[in-house]
């Protein structure tokens, strides 16, 4: 039994599929995805963007394949990428065939939208031959006409029905390696649709609030929608859709997972908003530390608190802590225990050194445990 049962998240039981070498669903870690916004027909630009996302820890990257020039670039992109590539096809079944042959690990496609049953069977044959999984991607903005006529407007029931209709097509052709998303830009609609879908099927679910907005607004909106679903145990892979660089989506995705204790990567900084009691410039210090510690992948925690009101309490809960003190004498805590004082001079450099040393110790201990 957990010591803190109010922190427990009981994940929905889902079947597991593979996206390349990355498991999705079941008891696999919840994966973080993003999508490139370069021209896929420009493999160099696309690969460079994928590299940046990889450095931030992305698990899966989706690229759009709207034309033959894009799928012609896919062999190079898939070969150079260190993570599985999902080819976004939409209505073009020939692009699906080309992308599968080019090395895509997954096809984002709605089988009911690509035409005849023969076309569906062709795509399934190509997917099976190349070891591709699929993602059924239902969107409130592009629901089928018969569902809009039936329900009058996009609603949770319509999104779920659309998803299950597409799933049935794949199942009828003995294809089961797929995950499903039911995205909407309205948080309430998306959350209700995912809740209904989670009750209706055991396929893995890809979470997202589509067209969420810019960096700040989109992150908040996604955190509310995706976070509430994850808290309820729903979701196997996520994408934070932002009008921003893809790497920002990856960072936001990991922050959501870290805040719920579902994935641990890099330094989790606990910091105060600052006030007149602050003994050093908290906001600027945290801003610089976030940038300078972005290369740390080892999970650990750091508290940066401007004064002694909450500082000691927060420091007891983190690997490294800094609490502001009078006359520029600030207290440093290691593993929750007071250790030494530092002055304003080179404060940031000192904290960076401590974090890097702690990360090296944790990595060495982990390596020792594996032998």
Automatic annotation (TrEMBL):
Pathway field: Isoprenoid biosynthesis; isopentenyl diphosphate biosynthesis via DXP pathway; isopentenyl diphosphate from 1-deoxy-D-xylulose 5-phosphate: step 5/6
Assigned keywords, A-Z: 4Fe-4S, Iron, Iron-sulfur, Isoprene biosynthesis, Metal-binding, Oxidoreductase
Binding residues annotated for [4Fe-4S] cluster, in chain numbering: 272, 275, 307, 314
MF terms in GO: 4-hydroxy-3-methylbut-2-en-1-yl diphosphate synthase activity (ferredoxin)
UniProt keyword Cell wall biogenesis/degradation, yes or no: no
Reactions catalysed, as given in the entry: (2E)-4-hydroxy-3-methylbut-2-enyl diphosphate + oxidized [flavodoxin] + H2O + 2 H(+) = 2-C-methyl-D-erythritol 2,4-cyclic diphosphate + reduced [flavodoxin]
Cofactor remark from the record: Binds 1 [4Fe-4S] cluster.
Domain IspG TIM-barrel: 14-253
Name of the top EC class for this enzyme: oxidoreductase
Domain IspG C-terminal: 269-356
InterPro entries associated with the record: Dihydropteroate_synth-like_sf (IPR011005), IspG_bac (IPR016425), IspG_bac-typ (IPR004588), IspG_C (IPR058579), IspG_TIM (IPR058578), NO2/SO3_Rdtase_4Fe4S_sf (IPR045854)
PANTHER family: 4-HYDROXY-3-METHYLBUT-2-EN-1-YL DIPHOSPHATE SYNTHASE, 4-HYDROXY-3-METHYLBUT-2-EN-1-YL DIPHOSPHATE SYNTHASE (FERREDOXIN), CHLOROPLASTIC
Function: Converts 2C-methyl-D-erythritol 2,4-cyclodiphosphate (ME-2,4cPP) into 1-hydroxy-2-methyl-2-(E)-butenyl 4-diphosphate.
Protein family membership: Belongs to the IspG family.
HAMAP family: IspG (MF_00159)
Protein name: 4-hydroxy-3-methylbut-2-en-1-yl diphosphate synthase (flavodoxin)
Lineage: Bacteria, Pseudomonadati, Pseudomonadota, Alphaproteobacteria, Kordiimonadales
């Amino acid at each position: 039994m957990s010591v803190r049962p109010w922190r427990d998240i009981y994940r929905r039981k889902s079947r597991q599929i593979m996206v390349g070498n990355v498991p999705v669903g079941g008891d696999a870690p919840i994966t973080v995805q993003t999508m490139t916004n370069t021209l896929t027909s420009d493999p160099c630009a696309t690969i460079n963007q994928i590299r940046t996302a990889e450095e931030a820890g992305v698990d899966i990257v989706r690229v759009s394949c709207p034309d033959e020039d894009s799928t012609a670039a896919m062999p190079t992109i898939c070969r150079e990428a260190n993570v599985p590539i999902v080819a976004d096809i939409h209505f073009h079944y020939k692009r699906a065939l080309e992308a599968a042959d080019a090395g895509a690990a997954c096809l984002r496609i709605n089988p009911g939208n690509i035409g005849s049953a023969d076309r569906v069977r062709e795509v399934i044959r190509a997917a099976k031959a190349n070891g591709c999984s699929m993602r059924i991607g239902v969107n409130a903005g592009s629901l089928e006409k018969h569902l809009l006529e039936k329900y009058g407007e996009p609603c949770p029931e319509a999104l779920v029905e659309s998803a299950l209709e597409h799933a049935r097509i794949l199942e009828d052709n003995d294809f089961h390696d797929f995950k499903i998303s039911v995205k909407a830009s309205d948080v309430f609609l998306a959350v209700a649709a995912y809740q209904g879908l989670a009750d209706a099927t055991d396929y893995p679910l890809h979470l997202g609030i589509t067209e969420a907005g810019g960096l700040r607004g989109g992150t908040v909106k996604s955190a509310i929608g995706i976070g509430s679903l994850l808290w309820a145990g729903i979701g196997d892979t996520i994408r934070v859709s932002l009008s921003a660089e893809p790497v920002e989506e990856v960072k936001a995705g990991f922050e959501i997972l870290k805040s719920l204790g579902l994935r641990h990567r890099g330094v989790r900084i606990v910091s105060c908003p600052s006030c007149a009691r602050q003994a050093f410039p908290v906001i600027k210090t945290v801003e610089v530390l976030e940038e300078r510690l972005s290369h740390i992948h080892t999970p650990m925690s750091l508290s940066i608190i401007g004064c002694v009101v909450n500082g000691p309490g927060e420091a007891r809960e983190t690997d490294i802590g800094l609490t502001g003190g009078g006359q520029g004498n600030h207290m440093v805590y290691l593993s929750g225990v007071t250790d030494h004082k530092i002055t304003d001079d080179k404060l940031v450099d000192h904290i960076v050194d401590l974090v890097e040393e702690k990360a090296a110790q944790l990595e060495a201990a982990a390596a020792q445990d594996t032998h």
